[in-house]
Specification:
Blueprint (H helix, E strand, L loop, with lengths): L1 H7 L2 H6 L6 H31 L5 H23 L7 H30 L1
Helix pairs in contact: 1-3, 3-4, 4-5
Length: 119
């Protein structure tokens, strides 16, 4: 979620870094940059809300966690083949941040299974 918020603040500077591009390209870049930030915020909020509201770790909540994991892995692969090739540290950190976040969520699913079995 924090990485999503961090996407929103530098949007203008990122677009300026592309130099003189058409208005359409500026709008597309702005839309995509903000979209990724909002997607990451949504993923974080969804995970937090599910965790706070459901102390039983139902199948639906586990499905939300697992699909969140899958989305973060998809974003990680996309970033690995695109942004990782750019010589700008925040872009290069995306695959690592997405992968670690997804693996932590996956670990939470496994931990939840152990707790359920022990009760």
């Amino acid at each position: 979620m924090i990485w999503g918020v961090a996407h929103l603040f530098p949007t203008g500077n990122v677009i300026k870094g592309f130099g003189n591009i058409t208005v359409d390209n500026v709008l597309i870049m702005k839309m995509e940059w903000i979209n990724e930030g909002l997607t990451l915020i949504f993923i974080g909020l969804l995970t937090i809300v599910c965790t706070v509201l459901d102390d039983k770790k139902t199948r639906v909540i586990k499905a939300v966690y697992f699909t969140t994991f899958l989305m973060l892995m998809a974003m990680s692969v996309l970033s690995l083949f695109t942004g990782f090739k750019i010589d700008f540290l925040p872009f290069r950190l995306c695959p690592l941040i997405f992968t670690v976040s997804g693996l932590l969520i996956l670990q939470g699913i496994r931990t939840g299974k152990k707790e359920t079995l022990s009760n």
